[in-house]
Amino acid sequence: MRIFRLYQIDSFTKNKFSGNPAGVITNADGLTENEMKKIARELNNSETAFVFSSTDHTYDVHVRFFTPTVEVPICGHATIAAHYARAVEQQLDTTRVRQKTGAGILPVDVIREENDYKVVMRQGKIEFGSVIEGENRDFLLDALHITDQDLLANCPIQVVSTGHSKVMIGIKNSILLHQLNPKFEALTQLSKRLACNGYYVFTMDSAEEDILVKGRMFAPAIGINEDPVTGNANGPLGAYLVHHKLVKHDGSSFRFKAKQGEAMERTGTIEVEVQLEKGEPFEVSVSGKAVIVFQSELIL
């Protein structure tokens, strides 16, 4: 008999049943890849995180991430959830944890605040991929039911990654954002052509003073028609906004808050920080809070 500590955690929120839910197993040593796939499918969250012990001095924990259908290299909200669960379990003080992921060994800062925790996740290398043009661009706009007139000016439709790439699509207003009803099969087909599974549609049309961006993220090719609140979309978006000179900054860093999940009634807020070097983004981190919805034991 093997007993695993199992959590369901809502990330990027302090209100249960909002934000982005993730499954977490904090003592995953001994689980096979097939078992992790089955557990992720059973929990049916957009991602489940499995925390393994370190096997050498270069990192503190090894975290693997699974959607209900595939393993992915890294996940923002499930990283927040995994390290929140560990912090609560171990009653950690403020500390830095080096996590090994499919996107490399990355630092995670666990910050203790008034008997609770905030988690700051350093993301992977910033990579600007291809700009989507021509037939693929037309196919994408049709799949999203939007037109050229709906797009934000000076915002190329582009693949951007900080470890798990997304297509960035800027549109003019939040009313349209919340009305989107994509053709998921078409997006799945296009993902194969673009070698990118996620589509982040965002707007800077926010009536909330402290919120710069609102967005929705679709990734049907990996079993996630829509993700409520996405660290690996808003992080690369920060790099994209700086790179294309769409925001003002002080030359060394740029910070903003993004809200996502409203259309799914699972609203959450992400804080994004972009570090700059010679006017260009070179490092991105995302941070947020979390809340435990339930904890249990999984017996195999």
TrEMBL record:
It comes from Caldalkalibacillus horti. Pfam families: PhzC-PhzF. It comes from the Bacteria. InterPro entries: Phenazine_PhzF-like (IPR003719). Gene3D superfamilies: Diaminopimelate Epimerase, Chain A, domain 1. Belongs to the PhzF family. This is PhzF family phenazine biosynthesis protein. NCBIfam families: PhzF_family (TIGR00654), PRK10281.1 (NF007625). The keyword Zinc-finger does not apply. Keywords: Isomerase.
